[in-house]
Amino acid sequence: MSFARGRELVLTPGPSVMPDRVLRAMQRPAPNIYEGELVEITDSILCDLGRLAGTAGETALYVSNGHGVWEAALSNLFGPGDAIVALASGTFGHGWADTGRVMGLDVEVLEFGRHAPVDPTALSERLKEDTAHRIKGILVVHADTSSSVRNDVPRLRQAIDDVGHPALLLVDCIASFCCDVYEMDDWGVDVTVTACQKGLMTPPGLAYVMFNGKAAAIARANPVRSPYWNWSPRTQPERFYERFCGTAPTHLLYAQREALDMIAEEGRAAIFKRHALLARAVWAAVVAWSSDGPLRCNIEDPEFRSHAVTTILADPHDMLQLRRWCEDEAGLILGLGLGFLVPEFMEGKSVFRIGHMGHLNPPMLLGALATIDSGLKALDIPHGPGALEAAAMVTATIS
Ligand SMILES: *Cc1c(COP(=O)(O)O)cnc(C)c1O
Predict the structure, then answer these.
(1) Furthest-apart CA pair in the chain: how many Å?
(2) Which of 260, 303, 382, 391 has the most other CB atoms within 10 Å of its CB?
(3) Is 14 touching ligand 1 by the criterion CB < 6 Å?
(4) Relative to the CA of 143, which ligand 1 atom is closest?
């Protein structure tokens, strides 16, 4: 018998929970796509996005998902044969590298496994060897949604500067945006990519590239830029439709505007604080579960854990069963073990993820943790006691 009535709770790491206000903002007839309100809304979205990224640079908006802006960033800046170093500490690091490889870039991956952040010292060492400065760009994912590692971007910038290397630093903030603290200009990031369906609480379909003056100059000197991904007309349009290289994504713009209003009402600092607290509640529960049995956080050091998603290991137990139980019996949808397709992790089945990004409050999260706790009991998966008390102790510190 299933009790999965009530409102279903999707805690996969994106698309995240849609606020009712965002859904309601889309309930309207088609607007004029040439002038008027939509033009103002779009300008205000771009302005807010730059502010949220912590940059005075430009923001280009694309009708696309995250994969699209991976390609957008690379296609503006690089061409076939250009040398790129991708730092990988999870599936998404490899994904961006693969995109570059298919585009004909000469991509070298520095691999740091599934359980640890990328190592700034290894990057300095590699750049030191590149005395001819062939390497044109460094790609890194801020929070890799598969491993739930959060990389230390300022230390990577330091590693590049320490050896005086001119390569651009490109950062994927798709999972971390509006969840983890990020300061593009202060941290010396040249290009940031993000998308709307995670911390930005909007249905998938809008994605953004922020770039500074150094990246803009390199892009201008690029002789072959694809007409769709070219960020220049999008940021300096003569006509409004050039912002999108075609029809505006009308209702997504209303949705994004509403989500940004909610973000402004809460405030950036409060949003980071809420995500930090909810993340700590999840970790406290996992620590309690781990006192007896297989469950543990994939990233051992809390300093390198994302505040947007937590990857939990349970080898050799089948967490697919747990996810099924949570979904079918209780209406809670959890994330699968992405990027663990090896026998050691039962082809990903001994891993699951809890997304805790975006429109989320303690009753939603504590309810999810309690539901997982029930599932562990129902399925006889060994686990330590006290997870809910531990999580509640964390949320008790809200003040
Ligand atoms: C979700 C995600 C992506 C991919 O975004 P899509 O919209 O699915 O293309 C890339 N990088 C990170 C870190 C992500 O979390």
Answers:
(1) 67
(2) 391
(3) yes
(4) 13
d(CA 207, CA 63) in angstroms, rounded, equals: 6
Q: pLDDT by residue (tens digit) across 112-169?
A: 999 999 999 999 999 999 999 999 999 999 999 999 999 999 999 999 999 999 999 9
Exposure class string for 81-104: b at 16+ Cβ within 10 A, else e: ebbbbbbbbbbbbbbbbebbbebe
What is the C-alpha separation between 50 and 66, in angstroms, rounded? 17
Pocket test for ligand 1, best of 145, 147, 179 (most atoms within 8 A of CB): 145
Beta-carbon contacts of residue 370 (< 8 Å; ≥ 6 apart): 388
Place of tokens 């849609």: 18
Give buried/exposed letters for 108-125 (b at 16+ CB in 10 A, else e): ebbebebbbbbbbeebbe
Tens digits of residue pLDDT in 241-272: 999 999 999 999 999 999 999 999 999 999 99
Provide the residue count of the chain. 399
Asked if residue 174 has its Cβ within 6 Å of ligand 1, the reply is yes
Question: Model-level pTM?
Answer: 0.98
Find the 36 Cα to ligand 1 centroid distance in Å: 32
DSSP lists the bridge partners of residue 143 as: 150
Residue in the block written with tokens 């061409």: 79
Distance CA(385)–CA(377), nearest Å, equals: 10
